[in-house]
């Protein structure tokens, strides 16, 4: 009898500790919490029946600009205060390095995307890529973008002159324009047959979800090919790919990229190479 009583007590303690105590996380910090959290599911129960963003607005109106919720047993802090958001996203951005992990395992290249990196690795990669988004570099890219737009307009005007009119599929046209800008700014390459819907590049860009891993492999292969071409030439330009390759060279020469880490870094130094082929292609 004593053993059964002890078993029941231990089981009750385990259930409380595992399923109920996590739902008191925000209480210990005095954070106002959205009512109705359930064990295991938190506030997710019935979410498929609701419009998520409208629900968030309703919660902000009821609970204020800062409150806690639970996704399952995971505590989530909702911040809708403009000044605090500015503090988190701009002033102290380098102190909030980690993003939530996806539920399913990510392919190795996708795991190395900047937004999925953690800790010191994220800090170094962010500081390596930041010069690409400087004021001067953005001005250079704006000229490339303008050139891409001019070419699109020229093609449209040419077709209009030939027939006296032309029909423009805006979704397809803007998609090809976007891809053209990315290819020129990131890789420094121009693809002549972008407006051909039968081209492999456009097919992989338009139907990435339908093609699944085939689409991912295609762009990985393209990134690897461009990277090898850049390395074989020996001379690097100012595109994003070149910026990463320069950082890779620096790391090989100096043995580290630690100087790219911010002064607020508190995590241990990384001993393994950061700018691997996998890391560069992922970006």
Question: Can you describe what's shown?
Answer:
It is a single chain. The chain has 283 residues and is mainly alpha-helical. The chain has 2 domains: 23-91, no CATH class; 130-282, no CATH class. The chain is built from 12 helices and 2 strands; from the N terminus they run H-H-E-E-H-H-H-H-H-H-H-H-H-H. Helix 6 runs antiparallel to helix 7 (170-187). The longest helix is centred in the middle third of the chain and has 29 residues, at 135-163. The radius of gyration is 25 Å and the shape is extended. The relative contact order is 0.08. Residues 209-213 and 259-268 have low confidence and may be disordered.
Roughly what fraction of the amino acids lie in strands? under 5%
| Pattern of helices and strands | HHEEHHHHHHHHHH
C-alpha-based Rg, rounded: 25 Å
Structural class by SSE content: mainly alpha
Q: Specify the number of helices.
A: 12
DSSP, total strands = 2
How helical, in percent, are the residues? 55-70%
What ranges have pLDDT less than 50 throughout 5 or more consecutive residues?
Answer: 209-213, 259-268
Sum up the overall morphology in one term: extended
Distance between the termini: 62 Å
How is the largest sheet built, in terms of strand order? 1-2
The number of domains is 2
* Mean pLDDT metric: 76
Biggest beta sheet summary: 2 strands, antiparallel
Summarize the structure.
With 283 residues, this protein is mainly alpha-helical. It has a two-stranded antiparallel ribbon with strand order 1-2. It contains twelve helices and two strands.
